[in-house]
Amino acid sequence: MFFCNSGAEANEGLYKIARLHGHTDGRYEVITTENSFHGRTLAGIAATGQKKVKQGFEPAVEGFKHVPFNDLKAMQAAITEKTAAILIEGIQGEGGIYPAKPEYLLGLRKLCTDKNILMMMDSVQCGFFRTGHFQSWETILSDSNSDGFQPDAFSMAKSLGAGLPMGAIWANESLQDLLGPGTHGTTFGGTPLVSAHALKALEIIERDGLAQHAVTLGSHLTKRIQTLIEAHPTVLKEVRGLGLMIGIELAEDIPAFAESNRPASVQIVERLHDAGLLTIPAGARVFRLLPPLNLSQADADEGLAIIEGVIKELS
Ligand SMILES: *Cc1c(COP(=O)(O)O)cnc(C)c1O
Q: What is the domain count for the chain?
């Protein structure tokens, strides 16, 4: 483990591991996916598979390319003699809440092992018990014969510090000496203050069974939203996600949104905000619910009532 201060910084550590891993045979390329999000540093926006984060910041950091998500063949085809690593989110967050398929994860694992390419995962948003397990792939692969699936390295942040700035990377033992003394570091990474705070959060997650709570409450929220979709199909199209990482896709061409040319996702988030609920857009037509893991059922129901009110207004 290496502790740092944010998700973007954690991912920087992953790119550096990838480059060191490939260095002796001239490999430096990292393949990521379209609509991914990996943070706002220069390498982060180069890694991110969305044009809007890159505009105005050219020239891009070299050595990143993007392929469609959940498409094993596309990844296979994109690998060259320059490829050192691949990086994917277990569930695309900013991109619209799209979970990786089990066969995709297992296929990538095999592909990377066969070609000595690092399989790296960005768990900044979907990790840390949000889907009911420590990491998203444990949830995604829970029904598969996955034989101890593990990426070679992954990043974490967001929930990890329970509100304080903390990020981390984990890399498997065979990589542990790559980022040795002098190759990487940060002043505030893993300081006693944030570490004590994060440890306390971990203790509470275990004490209060918050991983299971994420599953139970997530399924309650998803069911209620499904009912709303059935009642208001002109406004809502689909709900998807795992645990307390939920994306709600809006229907196309909602008349009330026609006056503005801003994305529907932004417009709904503003209306929910005005009504007293904080959500966040994901892509052009999806808004996300990423509540704290200790959200109570009563608070969840209050939030649902706000969503219902806004949806009724729109329909
Ligand atoms: C938020 C996020 C990041 C960036 O994390 P910061 O702490 O904001 O730098 C990177 N990857 C994913 C998947 C994220 O959701």
A: 2
Mean pLDDT of 245-270: 96
User: What is the pLDDT, as a whole number, of residue 148?
Assistant: 87
Whether 109 and 257 map to the same domain: the answer is no
Q: How far is the CA of 39 from the centre of ligand 1 (A)?
A: 5
Overall pTM surpassing 0.85 (yes/no): yes
User: What pLDDT, on a 0 to 100 scale, did the predictor assign at position 180?
Assistant: 83
Task: Provide the token pair at 200.
Answer: 């306390």
Residues 6+ apart with CB under 8 A from 70: 98, 100, 101, 104
Structural domain range at position 202: 2-207
Q: What are the b/e assignments for 144-180, b being 16+ CB within 10 Å?
A: eebeebebbbbbbbbbbbbeebbbbbbbeeebeebbe
Q: How many whole angstroms from 37 Cα to the centroid of ligand 1? A: 7
CA-to-CA distance for 41 and 78, rounded, in angstroms? 24
**Residues 282/126, Cβ–Cβ less than 8 Å:** no
